[in-house]
Amino acid sequence: MSGDAAALSVAQQDRVFRPHGVVGASVEELVAELRSTGYDPLVSPVSREADEIRLTGAAMDPQAVGPGDLFVAVSGARAHGADFIATALASGAAAVLTDGDGAEKIREAIGYRTPVIEVTRVRDAAGPSAALIYGNTATSGPALFGVTGTNGKTTTTYFLRSLLDAVLDSHDQATGLIGTIEIAAGSETIPSKMTTPEAVQLHSLMALFRESGITAAAMEVSSHAISYQRTSGLFFNVAGFTNLTQDHLDLHGSMEGYFEAKAALFARSRTRSSVIIVDDPWGLQMAEAATGHVVRLATDDDPAAEADWIVTEVSAEALGSRFTLHSRRTGELIRCRTGLPGRFNVSNAALAAVMVLTAQERAELAFSRAEIISALEQADPFTISVPGRMQVIGTAPAAIVDFAHNPDAMIRTLEAAATASQGRTILVIGAAGERDITKRPLMGAIAVRMADHVIISDDDPHGEDPAQIRSALMEGARAALQDEALATRLEEISPRLDAITRAVELAEPRDTIILAGRGHEVHQDFAGTKHPIDDRVELARALRGRGYPTAPDAPDTPVAARPAATPRRDSTPEGGSAA
Ligand SMILES: CC(=O)N[C@H]1[C@@H](OP(=O)(O)OP(=O)(O)OC[C@H]2O[C@@H](n3ccc(=O)[nH]c3=O)[C@H](O)[C@@H]2O)O[C@H](CO)[C@@H](O)[C@@H]1O[C@H](C)C(=O)N[C@@H](C)C(=O)N[C@H](CCC(=O)O)C(=O)O
Ligand SMILES: Nc1ncnc2c1ncn2[C@@H]1O[C@H](COP(=O)(O)OP(=O)(O)OP(=O)(O)O)[C@@H](O)[C@H]1O
């Protein structure tokens, strides 16, 4: 989105990034739909005029409500949406969908002025309600490609979109994208608030996509989204699974709970086909749990016997890789490449390719196999820059900004660095506050096991004390240093800007610097206060400051200012047992 619109808040941008020609539904039609699907709605006030009110949009965030919207007021951990009824009404909300508590709050605040539809499961009902308003059905389009898994969602959706673009361009059709970094409808984009938006926004986006001539879209599906019913009422043409490793245990309680949340996406009622990477037992289990048409993809060196597609002939090419996709069923061989570093990007690229091939096989895309193969072999769709994902900022020393913020991603990123590096690996790492705390010591331990010099710093502390988060990482790192007699150098430096400067000061041209955890993010959140900092900008600045070369597309805009409220600076170089 450009011009004046770009100056709007994210919620305001959500409000204007909407379809225009929505036919909508009346309150009466919505209530009838909810009744017929078992939600047992109660409506007040019940009157002819109220029934005839036409709903032409839906929003859950009161700041994103527009005229004629259904305001979906949910009860949450921080607040009840109904507490914000005044904001929603001032913006033009025409009716409210809420629970008993919400209905009570609204009656107390405004009496019986606006129709209130009361159901017990508001989040469940939000998706089907929005689907009705925006005219979305299982076949209304666009062709939707959903990707879930602990790591690789963003990268795979960028790869998917790039491949779809390469094929659809010649058909004059555009593509969409919904994910952590941005929401895009063709060339129009807005920034994302969440990896997967709420159902009301997703349904609005489907209608916007259709209106904008978008025939295919790639979308990240987080486990939070599945648990919070954000994808309710949406139907995927192909759902893809990358992997399952430790993260988000604060929400899911256990790996089994986390698995169950993800598995819900691969049900016949939600997706027509599933493409599942079966490189580990979780993947194999996911393929067993999936119902409907399931395609198994193996991307490692020891492919599972059950795999339908395997990746073979992987070889290094510049910083990226070449590989061949082999269909065990038909014998088909397709040559692909990705310019992004790391073996995991071969997996992400293979998943994107097999998802599109599967959609074509199942006659869900109006283009031929030959067009996909030609795009794969000639358009190089997997050599693109994915913001903050293995993004190369400097070349000597190699300097990379990556989003790795959980144990498995760290291992894979540091493996990629070790393969590429001629010298030492210098790592800056932190952990986010108010998120899975059990991963912090694990991440500290992995850091000192796999890098040569580790600087523990801050990520987004959110409401937590940043020093405490660092200390949990340090604890894991120190224990590994001691127990495993490692020679890794370990420091704790805050703020992050100082940690970045220090990493560059330490580096020599043969070394590799990895700034992990923050990727594309441009603010750190300290208890609700946002401090501008972009790892990519600061790394490029520090490299240039020391006369080191930067990559051609390294940023040069001086975005970041030094944080206003700087947390404790605590630079305590520590050696491992041999240091
Ligand atoms: C755990 C979780 O996902 N919580 C989400 C959930 O919160 P909740 O149900 O507790 O609701 P709440 O925040 O109390 O708000 C209730 C209602 O009051 C409104 N409200 C609330 C507070 C306020 O100040 N103003 C306001 O209007 C809200 O818009 C909502 O309508 O619904 C809220 C409304 O949409 C989300 O903002 C909130 O996301 C929180 C902030 C969050 O951080 N979520 C992250 C963990 C998340 O979802 N991440 C995944 C990606 C994870 C990954 O793979 O890394 C994602 O898909 O983004
Ligand atoms: N297939 C993969 N397997 C393991 N690690 C990966 C994979 N793909 C990417 N990574 C690592 O995970 C990080 C995040 O990648 P990406 O943003 O593509 O995943 P994501 O699932 O969208 O993550 P998030 O949900 O946290 O945004 C990358 O920066 C990289 O370190």
Structural notes for this entry:
- The modification N6-carboxylysine is found at residue 262.
- This is UDP-N-acetylmuramyl-tripeptide synthetase.
- Keywords: ATP-binding, Cell cycle, Cell division, Cell shape, Cell wall biogenesis/degradation, Cytoplasm, Ligase, Magnesium, Nucleotide-binding, Peptidoglycan synthesis.
- The protein is an alpha/beta fold and 579 residues long.
- It folds into three domains: 23-134, Udp-n-acetylmuramoylalanyl-d-glutamate--2,6- Diaminopimelate Ligase, Chain: A, domain 1; 143-378, UDP-N-acetylmuramoyl-L-alanine:D-glutamate ligase (3-Layer(aba) Sandwich), CATH 3.40.1190.10; 391-545, Alpha-Beta Complex (Protein-Tyrosine Phosphatase, Chain A), CATH 3.90.190.
- It has 19 helices and 26 strands.
- It has an eleven-stranded mixed beta sheet with strand order 11-10-9-12-8-13-14-15-16-17-18, sandwiched between helices. A six-stranded mixed beta sheet has the order 19-20-24-21-22-23, with helices on both faces. It has a five-stranded mixed beta sheet with strand order 2-7-6-5-4, sandwiched between helices.
- Strand 5 (69-73), helix 4 and strand 6 (95-98) form a beta-alpha-beta unit.
- Helix 6 packs parallel to helix 8 and helix 7 crosses helix 13.
- The longest helix has 19 residues, at 343-361.
- The protein starts with 9 loop residues before the first helix and ends in a 34-residue tail after the last helix.
- Residues 559-579 have low confidence and may be disordered.
- The structure holds ligand UAG and adenosine-5'-triphosphate (ATP).
- Residues 151-155, 180, 195, 220, 222, 242-243, 344, 347-348, 389-390, 402-404, 408-409, 412-413, 519 line the site of adenosine-5'-triphosphate.
